[in-house]
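Reminder to self: keep the SMILES exactly as supplied, no canonicalising. Ligand is prephenic acid.
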Amino acid sequence: MLKNQRDKIDKIDKQIVSLIEDRLQVVKEVAIIKKENGIPVLDSSREENLLTKVKSYTDDADLKKLYEEIFSTIMNHSKEQQNKLIEK
Ligand SMILES: O=C(O)C(=O)C[C@]1(C(=O)O)C=C[C@@H](O)C=C1
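C-alpha cells returned for the bound complex:
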C-alpha cells in the first residue's frame, strides 16, 4: 500500500545523503585552505549569512525553523571535521 511512496522517500533520502557527502568533501577542501593560510575554522558571519539564505528559500515559518536546525547541525559537523583535519 505504502510501497510506492516509501520507495520514493528512500530514493530522496539517498540523494540527500549523497549531497551531504559532496558538501563535506568541499568542507574538507576549505579546511586545507584555512590550515595553509592560518584562517580560523569558525566563520560566524558566513554561518549567519548562510542560515539567512537557506531560510529565504521558503515562506513557511515551520520550514524556516527546520532549515535553521538542519543547517546548524550540518555546520557543527563541518567544524568538527575541519578541526580534526587541522589538528592532524
Ligand atoms: O565557509 C567556510 O568557511 C566553511 O568552513 C564552511 C562552513 C559550512 O559548513 O558551511 C563551516 C564552518 C564555518 O564556520 C562556516 C561555514
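Points to follow up:
The domain at 3-87 is CATH 1.20.59.10 (Chorismate Mutase Domain, subunit A).
The chain has one domain: 3-87.
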